[in-house]
Structures are given as structure tokens and as C-alpha cells.
Design a protein that fits this description.
Number of strands: 3
Distance between the termini: 23 Å
Radius of gyration: 12 Å
Strand order of the largest sheet: 2-1-3
Shape: globular
Order of helices and strands: EHEHEH
Number of domains: 1
Length: about 80
């Protein structure tokens, strides 16, 4: 069993993240969806990841216009 964090936009229910959660939970993994809606969420997203302490963190970027935000988030996650 792995602890897996799925990070992505949650302005409305993100069906992609929920489908992945369902499939992973069916295989007995522990999954947490971590919201990342805007660049201002970086600190809160990192705090939630640290609290959950996942073995695997997946970043779900639906729109390439958010690439820089996700890169900044990834750098912050790696720096922790």
C-alpha cells in the first residue's frame, strides 16, 4: 500500500483526479486529493503535502498556461 497525493485544480470537482483516486483506492492505496487552484495556494498545498507525507506525489496540470505555477510548486515541494 502506498500513500499517494494527487495535486491539481479543485475549483469544481476534478473528475480526472477522482477517477485516479478511485482506481488507486481499489488497489488498496491511500490517496489524498490536494487542491492547487492558483499560485497563491503554493504554501497551503506544500503544508498539506507535508502533513500527509505521501510516498508518491502526482501533479495534474490540465492547462499548459499554468506550467510556470506548477514548476514553482514542484520546486517548493522538492525543497522541503
Amino acid at each position: 500500500m502506498l500513500k499517494i497525493a494527487l495535486v491539481g485544480a479543485e475549483l469544481k470537482e476534478n473528475l480526472g483526479l477522482r477517477y485516479m483516486t478511485s482506481a488507486l483506492e481499489r488497489e488498496k492505496h491511500r490517496v489524498e486529493i490536494v487542491p492547487f487552484n492558483t499560485e497563491q495556494d503554493i504554501s497551503q498545498t506544500v503544508k498539506q503535502l507535508i502533513a500527509f507525507s505521501p510516498q508518491v506525489t502526482s501533479l495534474s496540470m490540465v492547462f499548459t498556461s499554468r506550467a510556470r505555477e506548477f514548476c514553482r510548486l514542484a520546486c517548493r515541494i522538492r525543497g522541503t
